[in-house]
């Protein structure tokens, strides 16, 4: 798989610019910044390329001025995918649209009618890695400084992905309301071991935090008309755990 990010102003008027790293077409007054991520599947040929990035960029920038509808829709993704196919790009394994550092939309050709919405949140919490019933020495042997008795803190990032239902008028707002109520009020600015009953008997590793978030969110999201796809918790910029929705 090759993924290529194409950055541009939206709506696109097809205007040129010289900073492809920034955005082409260029950002002008009143335009918004978006990123399209095109994922192509296949194997590299003798050149070492799966596909040159030049036709990917060209296809996106030729297609963009032709689409005048809402972009956060499966219709839009299907239009872009069809354009990529007509431009003889390799088969797509997915398309993503990032509209802010915290908001992205994901589509893949296996479920062309569906659009996944991903929203990122942040919460601060302290924790201590320790197994109930183990001595401090035993916990230190297992978890090192992460088991220091008074704990330590993280700024956690929580990525929640749901399947967008067109019947839910504002999926992002509905998602954010549920996450705020079910997760933020429970975990933000808390000591997970001491303040949160969910971790009274559960070691608050990043894997378990992701699992708890999944369990807190899935039913309330469903009640709000949203199908949970997955939850990812980032403990640091280098470490995360992902849990899929329960079947
Ligand atoms: Ni930690």
Please give a structural write-up:
- The radius of gyration is 22 Å and the shape is elongated.
- The protein has helices at 53-63, 74-86, 136-143, 171-187, 192-195, 206-223, and strands spanning 2-10, 32-40, 92-100, 103-107, 116-127, 152-163, 190-191, 227-236, 239-244.
- α4 (171-187) crosses α6.
- Strands 1, 2, 3, 4, 5, 6, 7, 8 and 9 form a 9-stranded mixed sheet that branches.
- The longest helix has 18 residues, at 206-223.
- It is of the alpha+beta class and 247 residues long.
- The chain folds into 2 domains: 2-113, Tetrahydropterin Synthase, Chain A; 116-244, Tetrahydropterin Synthase, Chain A (2-Layer Sandwich).
- It starts with a strand and ends with a strand.
- A hairpin with a 2-residue loop joins β8 (227-236) and β9 (239-244).
Give descriptors for this structure.
247 residues; alpha+beta; Tetrahydropterin Synthase, Chain A; nine-stranded mixed beta sheet; 6 helices; 9 strands; 30% strand; elongated; binds nickel (II) ion
Topology (SSEs and partners):
Layout: E1 2-10, E2 32-40, H1 53-63, H2 74-86, E3 92-100, E4 103-107, E5 116-127, H3 136-143, E6 152-163, H4 171-187, E7 190-191, H5 192-195, H6 206-223, E8 227-236, E9 239-244
Parallel strand pairs: 5-7
Antiparallel strand pairs: 1-2, 2-3, 3-4, 4-5, 5-6, 6-8, 8-9
The structure holds nickel (II) ion.
Please summarize what this structure is.
Strands 1, 2, 3, 4, 5, 6, 7, 8 and 9 form a 9-stranded mixed β-sheet that branches.
């Amino acid at each position: 798989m090759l993924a290529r990010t194409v950055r541009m102003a939206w709506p696109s008027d097809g205007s040129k610019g010289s900073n492809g790293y920034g955005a082409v077409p260029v950002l002008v007054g009143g335009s918004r910044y978006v990123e399209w991520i095109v994922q192509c599947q296949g194997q590299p040929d003798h050149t070492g390329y799966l596909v040159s990035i030049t036709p990917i960029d060209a296809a996106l920038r030729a297609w963009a001025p032709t689409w005048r509808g809402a972009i956060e829709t499966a219709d839009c993704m299907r239009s872009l995918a069809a354009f990529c196919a007509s431009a003889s790009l390799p088969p797509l394994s997915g398309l993503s649209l990032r509209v802010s550092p915290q908001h992205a939309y994901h589509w893949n050709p296996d479920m062309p009618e569906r659009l996944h919405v991903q929203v990122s949140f942040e919460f601060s919490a302290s924790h201590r890695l320790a197994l109930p019933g183990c001595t401090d020495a035993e916990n230190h042997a297992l978890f090192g400084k992460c088991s220091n008795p008074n704990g330590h803190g993280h700024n956690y990032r929580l990525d929640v992905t749901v399947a967008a239902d067109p019947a839910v008028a504002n999926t992002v707002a509905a998602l954010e309301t549920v996450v705020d109520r079910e997760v933020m009020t429970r975990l933000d600015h808390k000591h997970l071991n001491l303040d949160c009953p969910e971790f009274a008997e559960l070691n608050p590793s990043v894997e378990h935090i992701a699992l708890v978030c999944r369990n807190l969110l899935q039913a309330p999201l469903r009640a709000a008309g949203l199908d949970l796809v997955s939850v990812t918790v980032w403990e640091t910029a280098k470490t995360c755990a992902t849990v899929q929705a329960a079947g």
